[in-house]
Design goal:
Elements (H helix, E strand, L loop, with lengths): L22 H8 L3 E5 L4 E3 L8 E6 L2 E5 L7 E6 L8 H5 L6 E4 L3 E6 L1 H10 L1 H21 L3 E5 L4 H12 L4 E5 L6 H7 L9 E4 L2 E4 L3 H8 L11 E6 L3 H12 L4 E4 L26 H14 L3 E3 L4 E6 L4 E5 L4 E9 L3 E4 L6 H4 L10 H7 L3 E5 L3 H10 L5 E5 L11 H9 L3 E4 L2 E9 L2 E9 L5 E5 L2 E4 L1 E5 L39 E3 L11 H22 L13
Parallel strand pairs: 8-9, 12-13, 12-17, 13-14, 17-27, 19-20, 19-25, 20-21
Antiparallel strand pairs: 1-7, 2-6, 3-7, 4-5, 4-6, 8-10, 10-11, 15-16, 16-17, 18-26, 22-23, 23-24
Helix pairs in contact: 3-4, 5-7, 8-9, 8-14, 12-13
């Protein structure tokens, strides 16, 4: 960036991302803040900085710069008087992915982060303006800066793992593909890294060689240590629609709330490119956007989100429920909400593991769409998830084949999706068909062997990427024998639990004070709206439990059977 540049044009407002505050709003913030003079060249926020204030430009101009101080620094935005700085990461505890540098002498208003949280909770109009702006800015930031660099081959399962973690958690990042990007090899040579050492993650002055999910999450500011957490009112395990609803409602009602998820917020719904039949969104909304909004709501009311953080065991003592995490930490809570959901079942075909992570995927988001460009892909399943994936991927892939075992798409799929599929010229529906074989070498899928279940005919279908969206398996392995499960592994609740102790209330498991909501619960309706409803209902039951037992958790409730 040229430091002698005399005139800077302010970045135009885009979709409400860069609003200008009114006199009244600035006065409201001034009561909680201090004014700071700034000189040209002052770094107000440094790239990578975690602890920072909410800044409002009162006079002068401030540039948002990526890679400030390096030969490749780049001006991304310019903000003038009455605009505020930063984006969603300020509220969620992430480091800044850019620097903010004064370009003219002026003055800023510095609001401490704790005061900003109070503003968001107590001043609805101003709080909503800030939240809407931050959500829009994160969306724009993802598409406009390099962020964290992930260098690796598209055929590497670890590369895909890291890309998925970054994409699912909405971390600004750039994937540099060893197979396609002409600059990848030069970059690796400069860093003295061989292709065999990839994938690598690069951000600022750090280079991580094939980091674990936890290491990448630490760099991106997604996760902090839970080792010394004080006792809380509610631990929500799972951050899909049900878990996020439980978090929003419990935190909004004054309960200290911690939310965990092993992968990302949004759950299975977060992998949906567009949900078109969710109440209140006539134009539809992506699962990721829905999750982002819920996360901001939960943070607004004071919920503490830790992602990725995997629960591995549930125990209890005389007074508390105890959730053990994968890093050895323990969370003590008066109540627990199990919202770990379900995952798609795997195809029962030989060599599946060989292609998972390189050619077989269980989500259809923009990340997967990049791999599908001009490729033939196949989707297995007849439900809404398969339908949404078919519609979305048909906009990117050369050919999409939807494989179903029966002959009627209307049987398990919403009519609006069936209509869209039937209108897509590059979509072929293979009815009465099952996958019998995966064909390819070195983890690179080339075709599927399929069988017509009516005629018995076997043939091959060209395919480089396969998306199975079939059935569901509950994510309850971490529960072991701590609560009662049905024969398929789903959590039993309420009248389903056989026990000599007092009968659990609706949504309560065989362990008093432990509730289950959403897809993980036996007999639940597998819809986003239903999951949200159950998550919100759980909070009322938590209040009832705390009123009955206070600080003394009951030891009754041996796991029973349906």
């Amino acid at each position: 960036m040229n430091p002698n540049e005399e005139r800077l044009s302010e970045t135009p407002d885009v979709a409400g991302a860069y609003p200008r505050l009114s006199d009244e709003q600035i006065e409201m913030l001034s009561r909680r803040a201090e004014k700071r003079p700034v000189q040209r060249g002052d770094v107000l926020v440094a790239e990578g900085q975690r602890d920072r204030d909410f800044l409002v430009v009162l006079s002068g101009k401030v540039a948002v710069i990526e890679g400030y101080g390096t030969p490749k620094d780049r001006m991304v935005r310019v903000h003038g008087p009455r605009r505020f700085l930063d984006e969603l990461g300020l509220l969620t505890g992430q480091p800044s992915f850019v620097s903010m540098v004064a370009q003219e002498p002026g003055e800023v208003l510095a609001v401490p982060l704790r005061e900003l949280h109070e503003v968001v909770r107590e001043e609805p109009d101003l709080g909503d303006l800030i939240l809407r702006s931050f959500l829009a800015r994160r969306e724009l930031l993802i598409g406009s800066i390099t962020g964290i660099k992930i260098v690796g081959s598209r055929f590497s399962p670890d590369t895909r793992r890291l890309c998925e973690l970054a994409a699912r958690n909405r971390v600004p990042h750039t994937w540099i593909d060893l197979e396609e990007d002409p600059g990848a090899e030069k970059l690796l040579r400069r860093l003295s890294i061989s292709a065999n050492d990839t994938p690598v993650v690069i951000w600022r002055d750090r280079v991580l060689r094939n980091p674990s999910n936890a290491e990448l999450a630490q760099v991106a500011g997604l996760r902090r240590s839970c080792q010394d957490e004080a006792r809380c009112d509610v631990v929500v395990v799972g951050a899909g629609p049900a878990g996020l609803a439980a978090a929003v409602y419990s935190a909004s009602e004054g309960l200290s709330t911690i939310v965990l998820d092993a992968v990302a917020t949004g759950g299975q719904a977060g992998t949906s490119s567009r949900i078109e039949n969710y109440l209140g969104f006539p134009a539809g909304i992506s699962g990721a956007d829905l999750a982002d909004r819920a996360v901001v709501q939960a943070k607004k009311f004071g919920a503490d989100l830790n992602v990725p953080a995997e629960a591995v065991r549930l125990e209890w003592d005389e007074s508390d429920q105890i959730v053990h995490l994968d890093d050895g930490a323990q969370l003590r809570s008066r109540t627990v909400v199990i919202a770990t959901g379900a995952r798609y079942r795997k195809l029962d075909v030989p060599r599946l593991a060989e292609f998972e992570g390189t050619s077989v995927y269980y989500a259809a988001t923009f990340m997967e769409a990049v791999f599908c460009e001009r490729q033939p892909v196949s989707i297995v399943g007849g439900g809404n998830s398969a339908g949404q994936a078919t519609v979305f991927l048909s906009q990117h892939a050369a050919q999409v084949r939807l494989i179903i075992r029966h002959d009627d798409l209307n049987r398990d799929m919403s009519r609006y999706l069936v209509d869209q599929i039937e209108r897509r010229p590059n979509v072929e529906v293979l009815r009465h068909t099952e996958v019998t074989e995966l064909i390819g070498d070195d983890g690179r899928l080339q075709a599927l062997g399929v069988r017509d279940t009516g005629t018995g005919e076997r043939y091959e279908v060209p395919t480089t990427l396969l998306f199975p969206f079939i059935g569901a398996q509950p994510c309850t392995g971490w529960l072991a024998s701590s609560v009662a499960l049905d024969e398929r592994g789903y959590v039993l609740t309420g009248a389903q639990v056989r026990t000599d102790a007092p009968q659990p209330v609706m949504l309560e498991t065989s362990r008093p004070g432990v509730l289950a909501v959403g897809d993980v619960r036996s007999g639940s309706i597998k819809r986003v709206a239903s999951a949200v409803g159950e998550g919100s209902m759980a909070v009322r039951l938590i209040h009832d439990h705390l009123a009955r037992f206070g600080d003394a958790a009951s030891l009754a409730g041996t796991p029973g059977t349906e």
